[in-house]
Amino acid sequence: MVVAEVPALPGSAHDETDPPEGTEASDTPTPEQLAVASRVVALWSADDKADSNWSSSVWSALLRKSLFALESGRDERAVPTAISLLVREPHLTPQVCGYLVAVGRDQPDLVHEVLDELCDRDIVSIWQSLWIAYLAGSVSGGRQRRKHVSWLREQLESPHDSVSAQAALALARRRLLSVRPASRAYDRAPEAHRTTAALALAAAQGVSRGDLVQSDQIEGWLANWARKQSWGLPSATPVKRVISRHP
């Protein structure tokens, strides 16, 4: 009897590791691979998993690889499951957000809807909030009155300095941050998060003077770099991910 071979997911030889930071998939997923990845996510979200009998570690490895394949192919079929993944598999938050960033390059409104629902429900941890802010800043366009934009503005006053700084940068990347709140975020940021807040303030200032953020040479470089970015513009080339897998 001949058994049909199921197309392997990209990177399936390394189920317990993430792809190296700053690298892209070496091969584009085939339609068959994307179908398999989508099927894995659908099986995970099904109410009855009695036919699978897989352990949580096996599910975790399969979901990681599936999300990576779907991210590489910018395949939107797992978007309806994204919030469930964040709630039930929080350790996969970096993979889920990376996937949504990729989908948002082609379909930003689809990801904005996910962000609106997610931020309206207040169901993520502080650590996940960092990733949600990063995601919100990585998908351009959208209306200022979106629920997730209101959530970002609320996070500017968060007692958690890391979340406040990331929210400021997210709003700046969307061109939704004015100089005054950006300056407040910069002034309150401790040393560990001063660089993030400096980027946000520099982006908010646009092409105006940068003396407010140039307290040292490195921050001056950051300010000059931020002014050259085309963040938040529909025709902009998506910003490459530069934060670590573990904020």
Overview of this structure, please?
With 247 residues, the chain is an all-alpha fold. 55% of the residues lie in helices and 0% in strands. The protein has helices spanning 31-45, 56-73, 82-88, 93-106, 108-121, 126-138, 147-155, 161-173, 179-188, 194-205, 217-227. The longest helix is centred in the N-terminal third of the chain and has 18 residues, at 56-73. The relative contact order is 0.09. Residues 1-7, 9-26 and 235-247 have low confidence and may be disordered.
Write the layout of secondary structure elements.
Layout lengths: L30 H15 L10 H18 L8 H7 L4 H14 L1 H14 L4 H13 L8 H9 L5 H13 L5 H10 L5 H12 L11 H11 L20
Short note summarizing the structure:
With 247 residues, this protein is mostly helical. It has helices at 31-45, 56-73, 82-88, 93-106, 108-121, 126-138, 147-155, 161-173, 179-188, 194-205, 217-227.
Number of helices: 11
Low-confidence stretches: 1-7, 9-26, 235-247
Largest sheet: none
Query: For the residues shown, what is the average pLDDT?
Result: 80
The structure class reads mainly alpha
Q: Which band does the percent of strand residues land in?
A: under 5%
Radius of gyration: 19 Å
The shape is elongated
SSE order, one letter for each helix or strand: HHHHHHHHHHH
Give a count of the beta strands, DSSP E runs of length 2 or more: 0
The separation of the N and C termini measures 50 Å
Question: Helix content range of the residues, please?
Answer: 55-70%
Question: Any key phrases for this structure?
Answer:
disordered N terminus; single chain; elongated; mainly alpha; 247 residues
